[in-house]
Amino acid sequence: MVQKGGNEFWVVSCISSGGRPDTDIWLSLNCDEEPQRENSTDSDTGQSSSVVLPATAYEGCNVTCVFDHPKFTHTESRAVTLPSFYLSGVQLINSESTIDGEGAENLQLREGESEVVIGLEVTGNVPRYDVTCTKDAGPLPEGLELVGSYLTVHGPVEQQRHAGLYECVVSYHHLKATVHINITVHVPPRIRVDLQTKGGHRVIECSADDAVPAANVSWLLPKGVSGVSWSNFTSHNGSHSVRGVILLPACSPRELTAECVINHPAFEEPESRSITLPHCAQTNITINSSTDWRHGEQFTQVDCSADSVAPAPVITWYVGNSDNSITSNLSETEVKADGSVSARSSVHFLSSLYAGQNLTCMVEHPSTEAAENRTIHIPAQKAPQLSVSLVRQQDSHLWLAVCSVCECRGEGVETNLTWVLPENAKGQTSLHAEYEGHSLKTRLTYQFPLALHEGQDLTCVYQFKHGVTERRTVHVPRYYISAVRVLNHTTPLRNRHADAAVIHRLTLQENHHNQRILLRVEGNVPQYDLSCKRSGGALVRMEGLEMVFPSEITEEDRGLYTCCASFYHHAATVKIQVEVMSESKLFGLIALTCLSVALTIISILAVTLWVCCTRNNRKQNKKRGSLSALTSQMQEPGSPEVKKPAVMENESKEYAQLLSYSIVIDVKSTV
Q1: What one-character DSSP code corresponds to residue 609?
Q2: Which end of the chain, N or C, is less packed with Cβ atoms under 10 Å?
Q3: How far is CA 43 from the centre of its chain?
Q4: For residue 205, what are the contacts with CB-CB under 8 A and spacing of at least 6?
Q5: How far separated are the first and last CA of the chain, in Å rounded?
Q6: How remote is the C-alpha of 154 from its chain's centroid?
Q7: What dihedral do alpha carbons 387, 435, 468, 382 form, nearest 10°?
Q8: Could you give the percent of the chain with pLDDT greater than 70?
Q9: Phi/psi of residue 635, each to 5°?
Q10: Which of 59, 54, 7 is nearest to 30 (CA)?
Q11: How far apart are CA 584 and CA 590, in angstroms?
Q12: What is the structure's pLDDT at 291?
């Protein structure tokens, strides 16, 4: 094939060489058009015959070379078929392109790219071809150049300039092939994240604006956190905007991060934007109670308050450890200027309804992972404190039985308090009541002489509401004073009357001062009055249980003293005969005592001597004479009537009579 004047021609040559004589050569065509022929002879190569055929005019024609020579028995021929040209199609060389349903090539470019080359691949056997391209049936935009089969974008790719439908036509004379290229410029979105608080929620907005094509917006949240999300889509001048919104609780017990993920063809990898929500301040919960009285009944009001950020806390009441909730409560919510919320809830009930139980205020709020409880104990209603006691009045001989009760109740309610007394009760009762706040203190007294109820029980009865009664009993002790004892050494002086009291005799030392007589009162009385006086009625100085003689003792202090211990109607006395001992009397008493002791010793020795003599003379029968002599020696001088008769035979009885005597020594002592 040769080109001449911009056209292509086929040159078909028939060549014969080495024969003698020359070979006749001619060409035949099966086409109607007569070709241009050319014959030539070359001594070296032989004979040839050529024809020049326009390539497009003789597509598919058969050209036959016929050779005739004397040596040939018949002519020889050689044939060749000229090729037919075709253009079967055009496609893009770029691997990123795709074909849509209408057969158009889709090619995506990124905005801002430069020196982007779009290659066309032509399928066919044409020797050459021409390529023309248009954009949206118009010329190619500035910055895009067609060189051969390549479209080159020199400047940065712009969506407004370069995006569109391109048509490229490949032609060779009458042959044509067309390709449609839909170039889309990927414009990355402008990403914006915004956070607001509305209606008790955190509103996070993630926008991917002015993108081509539209971006895809999704959310990633921490494990265990969920939110309500939605998206909306808008378009303008070929660009698209997507706004993704997610609602999260305005308050969280811990810090959390929400991530907005944007997918777009312009991104090699998805892009994300994160926003961190701090944890909320803890809810401030307080609980308190108060009581009031109405018609004698006590009522309790418990208030529970919770201050927090929005939304408002939810308050629920529970009684005890059960799931029983109190639905009858008064609640209110206040939104403050700084956006915080204060929730209040109150319950009002009869105190006896939940007495002794726990009342729980449960607060639920997003700032806490679990509900928080505040518990207050409703005190058990104690029974009125009933007490009884006995009081010895200082300025009266009467005793006082006191019954008192303290109870919490409203004003204007009477107290049913009474004494249950023995039949012989003749005392006087009185009732006194006073309020201290909501406490009513009642005091019922009974005044009586001790002798009237000694050893008996006095009972106080309190009547509660609903017929319940409570009793307290106080026992009146039975007292006695059995005796008054003298602790000094004394000797009894018997009265000639057998039933008369014993008189205790003791001796005080003459001319000595500050001498004392010690006494002791026996009995169960808590206290007593003790006094002593002389027979003439003069009182003696007392110090506790002691009679005191501060001055020197003289004969004037001699005499009978009477001491009396008394407790109300109980009394006991003791009589003391006081003797006064001088020093001369004491010396004579000591001498007499010594003489008595000496005589006693002599008598004992004489008896011993007599016994020995009697044993030695028993065989000589001198018992009677010896016994008479001894008896006469033992008798004191006096009248003959006091002499004892002689003892006869019975040795043991006589011996016993001789030993049956007593020696009495009366020694007087002083204090």
Answers
A1: H
A2: N
A3: 124
A4: 192, 193, 194, 195, 196, 243, 244, 245
A5: 179
A6: 73
A7: -70
A8: 85
A9: -80, 145
A10: 59
A11: 10
A12: 87
Using CA atoms, how far apart are residues 152 and 120, in angstroms rounded to an integer?
11
pTM confidence score: 0.45
In DSSP terms, 117 is beta-bridged to 152
154 has a pLDDT exceeding 70:
yes
Residue entry with tokens 């706004």: 243
DSSP secondary structure letter of residue 138: B
Report whether 461 contacts 579 (CB < 8 A). no
At 276, the amino acid letter reads T
Strand arrangement of the beta sheet that strand 2-4 belongs to: 2-4, 7-16, 46-54, 36-42
Which amino acid is it at 309?
Answer: V
| CA dist list (Å): 272 to 425, 538, 652 | 100, 120, 143
How long is the chain?
671
Cα 526 from Cα 387, distance rounded (Å): 22
Q: Where are the beta strands (DSSP E) in 338-384?
A: 341-350, 358-364, 372-377
Q: Return all residues near 467 (Cβ < 8 A) that are at least 6 apart.
A: none
pLDDT for the residue numbered 515:
93
Structure tokens at 46: 């032989």
Secondary structure letter of residue 372 according to DSSP: E
Average pLDDT of the chain is 82
Who's near 43: CB < 8 A, 6+ residues apart?
Answer: none
Report residue 57's pLDDT band, with 50, 70 and 90 as the boundaries.
confident
pLDDT in tens, 70-114: 888 898 888 888 888 888 889 888 767 788 777 888 988 888 889
